[in-house]
Specification:
Length: 414
């Protein structure tokens, strides 16, 4: 057994997001949602992507090219016949260098033109020339979205390998309610990460992630819980998706923002979590148990709100132990990853859990420092080597580091 010597990894070793260094062509077409594409371009740039914007003639009726030029620090493409130079061959260069072609918003007219293969504007020419994956986020009035012609165009593009980010329901520019609103920036980015990750280190693997704290009811309005926000579990789900995995996220009630592109199941208490994990891992390859599970629950749940009584200074209640979920899941071939949030003797306690729960990897960190925070320092512990202490980093960066570690533990050649 390795000793308790702790190796250290420097911050420079932490990997970047899958969007870092990606070359994304953002096609913007002419609908009222065109203004939302500015936020999308900004978020892509912030994530480290190089963004080339193509605007249709209709898009320029709603928003000026200067907006995108200011956000991306790159020229905005507006015509199919832009001049070629020694170093840039118009749509040919854009198409060749692209990591992904993202059309957001895509109007009904743009969907029809893409499906029909028209190449008389820059967007159409690039779409026909590129081998990069196509991601389409439609936005239009709901009757146009539901029309048989539009749906036929959607099917055509999907059959050719295009990925769709369906429109959301809500109030439309027409004043009506319907399912024609452009999906949120977070949803579009989540889908893009999933598409870019198809050849990633977890491509082909099925991963189950748990996130957030459980809540054990005392009565109809009170519960025993903890301060876990679920941010680490959500970051792990996003990182696994970006690495190419098929991801199921089992989320507790404290998880507020759910990632796009993953299957989500909501649970409330520890027993519900156990049932969900048992079902989800039946055909999974990896279980990442990042949820903060309540160790105990009330032996009896009051049917009515527990009331204070005159002169009452204390309340006594019996607590019973909740199941040890990760230890009870013992399917052959399932790689299990656990977390140990401790307040003392971090490595020693984590090593004990690693053995007793039969884990391939455990992530140990300071409970006070990490719960509810956007950053964390962690120590990665495996049975076959000395603990590896990582520097303090964002939970997103830590999630990507953990995913790389998991990939290294999976059988080669799968």
């Amino acid at each position: 057994m390795p000793d308790l010597q702790v190796e250290e990894e420097t911050a420079a070793d932490a990997p970047h997001s899958i969007l870092f260094g990606a070359r994304v062509i953002l096609g913007v077409s002419g609908g009222i949602a065109a203004y939302k594409a500015a936020d999308l371009a900004s978020k892509l740039v912030q994530a480290g992507a190089t963004v080339d914007v193509i605007m249709t003639a209709g898009a320029r009726e709603f928003i000026q090219p200067l907006t995108f030029q200011a956000l991306t620090k790159r020229p905005v493409h507006t015509g199919a016949f832009e001049g070629w130079t020694e170093g840039s061959f118009g749509h040919v260069t854009l198409a060749r260098d692209a990591s992904a072609l993202l059309v957001a918003p895509a109007t009904a007219n743009t969907l029809a033109r893409l499906a029909g293969g028209f190449a008389d504007d820059m967007l159409g020419a690039v779409a026909l020339s590129t081998e990069a994956p196509l991601i389409v986020a439609p936005a239009m009035e709901h009757h146009m979205w539901r029309h048989a012609a539009t749906q036929a165009n959607v099917r055509t593009l999907a059959e050719r390998g295009g990925t769709f980010v369906p429109p959301e329901s809500g109030r439309l520019a027409s004043g009506h309610e319907g399912d024609g609103r452009l999906a949120s920036t977070e949803t579009i980015l989540g889908t893009l990460r999933g598409v870019l990750g198809r050849g990633g280190v977890l491509a082909g693997w099925r991963v189950v992630v748990t996130a957030g704290g459980t809540q054990e009811p005392l009565d109809p309005v009170r519960f025993i819980g903890n301060r876990s926000s679920g941010k680490m579990g959500v970051a792990l789900a996003e990182a696994a998706l970006a690495a190419g995995a098929t991801v199921t996220l089992i989320a507790g009630p404290t998880v507020r923002q759910l990632p796009a592109g993953v299957r989500v199941e909501r649970i409330g208490n520890a027993r519900e979590l156990l049932s969900a994990v048992e079902s989800a891992t039946a055909e999974a390859d990896v279980l990442i148990m990042a949820a903060a599970v309540a160790d105990f629950r009330p032996d009896h749940i009051a049917s009515q709100k527990i009331k204070k009584r005159a002169g009452q200074e204390t309340v006594t209640m019996e607590l019973v132990r909740n199941p040890d979920i990760v230890a009870s899941i013992d399917r052959p071939g399932l790689l299990k990853v656990g977390f140990a949030a401790e307040t003392e003797s971090l490595v020693e306690h984590a090593r004990q859990k690693l053995a007793s729960k039969r884990l391939a990897l455990i992530v140990a960190n300071d409970a006070v420092d990490t719960i509810g925070s956007t950053e964390s320092a962690a120590t990665l512990i495996r049975p076959d080597r000395a603990p590896l202490a990582l520097p303090r980093m964002s939970k997103d960066a830590l999630a990507r580091r953990i995913v790389d570690e998991i990939a290294a533990l999976l059988p080669a050649g799968e």
